[in-house]
Design the sequence.
């Protein structure tokens, strides 16, 4: 199979690239080359900015592919560009959408591909929905061979998945736990969530590639394991061999008291209880099941982060924000008690 990935070095795409190379597939990556030193041997790179449409068209020449997948398309205009570049060049075009596109608030916490798409809280999700609509219109009007994939919270060895973090990723939370300091958990920690290891995601994704039954379809790819946020944070603490000191804060409060986009990522996503029904995926990819349980996957991530100084990025601004939120709420509690 001859495949082209636009991007190809992210959490999801890197795992797929590795598995395809293990299978001796022909893998091309089109990107700017910023992280290509991490790529395994055997990848064929086309170094270019995908937004430079003229240059990309020149570099592609008369090449055609069995599959083209865009991992870095976020707005419909980027998909319009992809359509111009790859119409007639591929037997399948895969768009990476997002499970955050499902309706918020949910009418039913059990999510299938038939769950309506609507997210008034997060522009990122609305743009993903618009991208899906654009591609489906092309499929219906002229048979452009699209497949839409909706990931949820997917992680790898470079970061642990969290509900609340700053701009420098997960290490500041690991540091807080190791130092015995409280960590903020949105809500009361009892809402349901699903974490998916990128190696499991890659296996399912490859099963969809070149699959004639996936053309014109949208399919979600997640683990079947469901956890509460309390269980997620407790598992992380257990791996670190520390006591978890949770500090619960309303998601609405967090959204209003931060420059971070918690309105989108919490109200429009992680604060909602979700349970994914993956029957459609398993019909498309018979025999698939996610194999890496969260406690196993997060242990691999933490071991790798603690052994890799480059991944231990401090975030003093986020750390101070956490402390300020906690201090302000504790002060408010004392003041209310004093008054009444």
Sequence:
């Amino acid at each position: 199979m001859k495949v082209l990935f636009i991007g190809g070095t992210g959490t999801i795409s890197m795992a797929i690239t590795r598995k395809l190379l293990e299978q001796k597939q022909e893998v091309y990556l089109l990107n700017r080359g910023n992280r290509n030193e991490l790529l395994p041997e055997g990848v064929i790179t086309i170094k270019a900015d995908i937004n430079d449409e003229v240059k990309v068209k020149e570099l592609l020449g008369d090449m055609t592919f069995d599959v083209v997948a865009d991992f870095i398309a976020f707005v419909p205009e980027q998909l319009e560009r992809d359509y111009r570049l790859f119409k007639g060049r591929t037997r399948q075009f895969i768009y990476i959408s997002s499970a955050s596109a499902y309706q918020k608030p949910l009418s039913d916490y059990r999510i299938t591909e038939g769950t309506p798409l609507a997210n008034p809280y997060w522009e990122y999700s609305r743009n993903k929905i618009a991208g899906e609509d654009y591609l489906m219109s092309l499929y219906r009007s002229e048979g452009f061979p699209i497949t839409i994939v909706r990931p949820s919270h997917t992680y790898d060895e470079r970061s642990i998945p969290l509900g609340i973090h700053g701009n420098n990723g997960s290490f500041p939370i690991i540091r807080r736990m190791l130092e015995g300091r409280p960590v903020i958990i949105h809500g009361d920690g009892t809402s349901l969530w699903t974490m998916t290891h990128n190696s499991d995601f890659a296996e399912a994704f490859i099963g969809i590639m070149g699959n004639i039954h996936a053309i014109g379809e949208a399919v979600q790819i997640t683990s079947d394991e469901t956890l509460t946020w309390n269980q997620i944070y407790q598992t992380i603490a257990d791996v670190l061999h520390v006591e978890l000191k949770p500090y619960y804060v309303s998601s609405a409060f967090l959204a209003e008291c931060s420059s971070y986009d918690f309105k989108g990522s919490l109200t429009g996503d992680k604060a909602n209880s979700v349970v994914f029904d993956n029957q459609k995926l398993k019909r498309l990819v018979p025999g698939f099941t996610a194999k890496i349980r969260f406690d196993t996957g997060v242990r691999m991530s933490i071991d790798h982060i603690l052994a890799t100084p480059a991944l231990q990025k401090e975030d003093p601004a986020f750390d101070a924000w956490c402390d300020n939120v906690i201090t302000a709420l504790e002060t408010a509690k004392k003041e209310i008690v004093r008054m009444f």
